[in-house]
Amino acid sequence: MQEALNNLLEKSFSNGSIDGALIMSEIDSGYSYVYYTNFEQIHNISPFQPVMKINGAKVHSAITRENDNRTKILFLMKPCEIRASVELKKLNQVDLDNSILLSYTCPGVLEFKEGNSFNDSEKFIENFINGNLYDNIREVCKSCINFSGEGADITINLFDKSFVALTAKGEEFLKSANIDYKTSFEPDDNYEKIKKIRETNRENLLKEYKNFFKSDDKIVEYFDKCIGCHACSHSCPICYCRQCYFESDTFKYYPDSIKRKVDYKNALRLPLDRVMFHIGRVTHMATSCVGCGMCEDVCPVNIKVSQFFKYMGTNIQNTFNYIPGINREEPLPLLTFKENEFQEIED
Amino acid sequence: MTLYYKLGDFKEFLISLMKNNIVDAVVVPMRGLTENSFSPFLIKDIELLKNCEPQSPIMSINSARALSQLTAKGAIPFKVAAVMKPCEVIAFRELIKLNQVNPENIITISFDCNGVNSLKDINSKREICEICTGFTPDNADIKIFSIGIESPVIATDIELSSLNLEQVEYNKESRENFIKEKLDENIKKRENKLLEIKSNFQNLLKNCIVCKNCMRVCPICFCQECFFDSPALSGNSVTYTLRANRMSGLSFPENKLLFHLGRMNHMSVSCVGCGACEDACPAEIPVSQMFASAGDELKKLFNYQPGRDIAEKIPFTCYEHDELHSFEQPYLEKR
What we know:
Chain A is of the alpha/beta class. Chain A has helices spanning about 1-15, 55-65, 80-90, 110-115, 120-130, 140, 170-175, 190-210, 220, 230-235, 255-265, 275-285, 295-300, 305-320; strands at about 20-25, 30-35, 75, 100-105, 155, 160-165, 265-270. Chain B has 13 helices and 8 strands. In chain B, strands 1-7-6-5-4-2-3 form a 7-stranded mixed β-sheet. The termini of chain B are far apart. The model of chain B has no long low-confidence stretch (mean pLDDT about 95).
């Protein structure tokens, strides 16, 4: 498949349909995204390396948030990164007009420390194509059911080794490069088998969490070890705010207010607002949570952050009947006001 | 004048400080809800204080940061005793110099520190603690001595007569010898360890994902907007394309080495060696040891010891016309 990809890149650079491409590659310090600006630069690409050191949507945003409307760039990213990019588009943090989003059927990623020096990605893919779930992938990857590359312009179906055009733009792009492609994703048995396993995992996770969070104070227990470093939010592709509300002046208290708080509670755990932060973050971004698992991978105290967000996110997304990152035209639930909704949960 | 008292029980001592109205509240580590979870708490209730763990084996955050947060908009409006590890006291004093904490109404209490354990592995000590050279509570208002002597002693200039503590003499010589021995041992270990770190610098950063969590937990890195997160380093589709052209490909996450060297440049002279950065690093990079390797040399160069004297200015905040000529490059002459 990599040969076909190389072919696509070479033709696309030479016929001018792209000026740049972001592709996972092997570099001195392991595997990283590399932004290339001509075909000659491209070497050692390892597009399906099971590692995510930074959610690609963050890179997409860094490069295209301010754009000249001329530089056309191809982004080859994992499905959850694509979905994050689509969400970021709705938040005006990326440019999609000049981007070609290319994805692939994703087997999941390892914890980034392991993935950064993992040298067996061919076997890893082979295992996936044969319908098996690898044990060491991120927990959220094990219950990810949107792994076909929906949301992208083009996806690479590793099972039948084909390019699939998902949008008109993607189709035109493949056509102009003279590449054979399909116009719809054709799932095979092994794909369905993996999807089934993951659906079961997901249901189990939702059940387990529903059981755990039977009372409000459980959330305090869940985030008990949190040191308030906010690494989860800073690694989150959706949390794009330059100034996080929870790091803003609002949460720096006047002396009176400190006194009132401690008089009322007799003790304050420090740093202040540790759990408040997570509750706040979940209300801000769970509708758009793509379940990439970066938050959990960077947590220094091993809190299962992404599984919590998966649980909350899935419930909230179901409530709004919204799947983040798939449909580019669908507006964000939090930006849509409907007069007659949720009256049943009004006081 | 420094007086010495017998310390019965650390917790009882804190309780008596509150009972006798020396302070109204205490900042001290206490257990969380789950196993091996500790955090500093601001405690106003004597009953709750009975559960505190003044010498907790975990540093969830450097408590100087917590005090900075508590005093962000003015001094705490009641008297507080803050039980801190020696490196936390040093960080507190550096933050005073940087105007990031209001020390009014705060009494610091510290003790001979045996180091803390890693947040990730409760059974192993932070590596930076193994090579710590500041394990005595030199900079605190109330010092608790325990190493090299038979039973713990409170040393303080603060008026504590209302507590009716028993004044004692302690074997100063024995203590000093003990400290010197341990210090010599740690200095030696430190030199070897840091030499090893320095020779392997770039390689150690292999797994760095530039999440900047080291900076976010650092007690000294107080900037609301870090330079390395600022628009100064960001770009757009044109500048990134130019950069990638020039460098034959641009890897992401970007600015890895620049970030660490820059941060080192900004704060390693004040680095207190608490190890919070290393413990918060998801890639398990020995960040604090890397910073110590640069920090130690800088401190020697400027004859600066963080936290030693509040009146002593941080080297970067004072300009001297005649210094460091040996580092100057006479590039004008050459041309």
